[in-house]
Amino acid sequence: AAAGRDNTHRLEAGNHVIIGADALKFVESGSEEKRVVIGGQAGGGSLAGSANCVVGTMSVLIGQDAFGSNGASANTSLMASTIIGGRAARNLVTGTSHTIIGYGAAQGTGSFDRSIVIGTEAGENFASDDCVIIGTTAAKDMTGGDKAVIIGSKAGEKHLGTGSIMIGYKAGWA
């Protein structure tokens, strides 16, 4: 099913649910993708130039401007992920196996894999692999330090260390 203006460009068969103006607008698709995309410009709806958005098998995007809606002119790619929240993962370029929940969560530009980011603006400029980030603005400016666990409001905002564990309000604040 699909609803909304300009939301099925290059879309092939594959049991999709797409709702919203320009949702999944510039998709490159296989036939067995089974995606759910809900929200205006979700899934690359505002990409520029000849850029395309790959949203892979069983991925779920819910929220205005969720994933790949940054006006970029380069291709974006997401596989096996769940992204929920306005502007969540908005500037993510490539990624696999994510759970990202919250307004503006993990919205910074970059690529990373296998991470969980939950909270309003949690991991806002985040670009690290294999991390668990939970809390409002937790790991907000984290751009390095894979395999970290950061839990708590404002915890690890400037964190750069690999394998760190920070728990509590402003834990690891620099």
Shape: elongated
Question: Which structural class matches the secondary elements?
Answer: mainly beta
Order of helices and strands: EEEEEEEEEEEEEE
Number of strands: 14
The overall average pLDDT, rounded, is 82
Helix content: under 10%
The largest sheet, given as strand count, sense and whether it forms a barrel, is: 10 strands, parallel
Low-confidence stretches: none
Residue share in β-strands: 25-35%
The radius of gyration is 16 Å
CA-CA gap between termini: 48 Å
Helix count?
0
State the strand order across the main sheet.
1-2-3-5-7-9-11-12-13-14
Plain-language structure description:
With 174 residues, the protein is mostly beta strands. The protein has no helices and 14 strands. It has strands spanning 2-3, 17-19, 36-38, 53-55, 60-62, 76-79, 82-84, 92-96, 99-101, 110-113, 116-118, 132-134, 149-151, 165-167. It has a 10-stranded parallel β-sheet with strand order 1-2-3-5-7-9-11-12-13-14, with no helix packed on it. Strands 4-6-8-10 form a 4-stranded parallel β-sheet, with no helix packed on it. The termini are far apart.
